[in-house]
């Protein structure tokens, strides 16, 4: 009697359903290190902001604020300055390390040619990359901006930086997300044109630094300025303490304006004679008020988002016309 042993039939486990399929899965897998890094920045940055706010709150409570008035430098610390520097540098970091290598890396390593020889068009490939990178950058920047605004707003009178400073203006409201998106788009555009990773990163760094200088000069043009006149020897009105000074003059009774330093460089006696000679009776102060800050931020964000749209459209147009 013979017995024949046969193997039991193998049952292959069916693969579980994927959250992502097709091109989205490929893009996320290719850039998983970058996406995970942005996720880490979002989580760790959020924890840092919440912690620093708690530290400032404890310090001010112990000092008796707001019942006891504190000088602004009292709450200044290295950790707060480090937070401001990190948030201020985030758009540049995104431009150099996320935007510039995104497509330039595919061009240099030949990934773009490999993918686009399959059933995927160049336009669809690049558009999917844009969608994932923009979404991740936007979520990260929005959360950090919301938390920083939540920290700064109730303590702005004792915060180490005033609202017109880039460290506050550019990191609250819609400004941080708009800046991050624009700088990322600029880095991607430079990468497409330069076609080499290191060259793209270097050019993007220079561009981002120059754009930051230009943007700082544009702040005063984001809203119409206001002008107030008050007596020459009177104290500045208290509501101007939080204002951004644009210019100032001294004026005569007939409305003629002179430069602020006209009579200030002479001796006290000569200065009084200068004032009488020109009939100067008023200080004239041109400024932007704190209540204008939201409108200025939305105007600035609109300009940056328009720039992001233009750069994105240019890249999509170029890749649809020319091989990567």
Walk me through what this model shows.
The protein has 324 residues and is of the alpha+beta class. 60% of the residues lie in helices and 8% in strands. The protein has helices at 22-30, 32-63, 78-109, 111-116, 122-152, 166-169, 175-194, 197-218, 268-278, 293-321; strands at 226-231, 244-252, 257-259, 280-288. The protein has a 4-stranded antiparallel beta sheet with strand order 1-4-2-3. α2 packs antiparallel against α3. The mean pLDDT is 83.
Compact overview of the structure:
The protein has 324 residues and is an alpha+beta fold.
Secondary structure layout:
Elements: H1 22-30, H2 32-63, H3 78-109, H4 111-116, H5 122-152, H6 166-169, H7 175-194, H8 197-218, E1 226-231, E2 244-252, E3 257-259, H9 268-278, E4 280-288, H10 293-321
Antiparallel strand pairs: 1-4, 2-3, 2-4
Helix pairs in contact: 1-5, 2-3, 2-5, 3-5, 3-7, 3-8, 5-7, 5-10, 7-8, 7-10
Q: Which residues form runs of ≥5 with pLDDT under 50? A: none
Q: Walk across the major sheet and give the strand order.
A: 1-4-2-3
One letter per element, helices H and strands E, the order comes to HHHHHHHHEEEHEH
Mean pLDDT: 83
Number of domains: 2
Shape: elongated
Record field, number of beta strands: 4
Strand content: 5-15%
Query: Main β-sheet: number of strands, strand sense, barrel status?
Result: 4 strands, antiparallel
Radius of gyration from the alpha-carbon trace, in angstroms: 28 Å
How far the N terminus sits from the C terminus, by CA atoms, comes to 71 Å
Helix count from the secondary structure assignment: 10
Structural class: alpha+beta
As a percent range, the share of helical residues equals 55-70%
């Amino acid at each position: 009697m013979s017995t024949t042993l046969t193997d039991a039939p193998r049952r292959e486990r069916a693969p579980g359903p994927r959250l992502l399929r097709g091109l989205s899965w490929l893009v996320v897998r290719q850039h998983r290190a970058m996406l995970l890094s942005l996720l880490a920045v979002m989580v760790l940055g959020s924890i840092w902001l919440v912690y620093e706010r708690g530290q400032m709150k404890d310090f001010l409570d112990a000092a008796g604020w707001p019942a006891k008035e504190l000088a602004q430098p009292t709450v200044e610390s290295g950790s707060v300055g480090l937070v401001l520097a990190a948030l201020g540098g985030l758009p540049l970091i995104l431009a150099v390390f996320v935007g510039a290598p995104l497509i330039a890396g595919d061009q240099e390593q030949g990934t773009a040619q490999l993918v686009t020889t399959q059933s995927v068009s160049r336009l669809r490939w690049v558009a999917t990359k844009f969608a994932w990178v923009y979404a991740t950058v936007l979520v990260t920047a929005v959360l950090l901006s919301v938390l920083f605004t939540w920290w700064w707003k109730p303590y702005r009178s004792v915060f180490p930086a005033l609202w017109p400073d880039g460290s506050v203006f550019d990191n609250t409201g819609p400004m941080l997300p708009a800046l991050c998106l624009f700088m990322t788009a600029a880095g991607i555009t430079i990468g497409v044109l330069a076609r080499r990773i290191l060259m793209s990163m270097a050019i993007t760094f220079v561009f981002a630094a120059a754009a930051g200088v230009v943007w700082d000069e544009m702040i005063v043009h984001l809203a119409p300025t206001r002008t107030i006149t008050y007596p020459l020897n009177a104290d500045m009105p208290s509501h101007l303490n939080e204002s951004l000074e644009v210019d100032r003059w001294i004026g005569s009774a007939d409305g003629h304006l002179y430069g602020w330093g006209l009579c200030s460089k002479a001796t006290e006696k000569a200065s009084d004679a200068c004032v009488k000679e020109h009939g100067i009776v008023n200080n004239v102060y041109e400024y932007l008020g704190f209540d204008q800050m939201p409108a200025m931020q939305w105007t600035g964000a609109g300009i940056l988002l328009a720039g992001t749209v233009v750069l994105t459209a240019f890249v999509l147009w170029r890749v649809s016309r020319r091989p990567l």
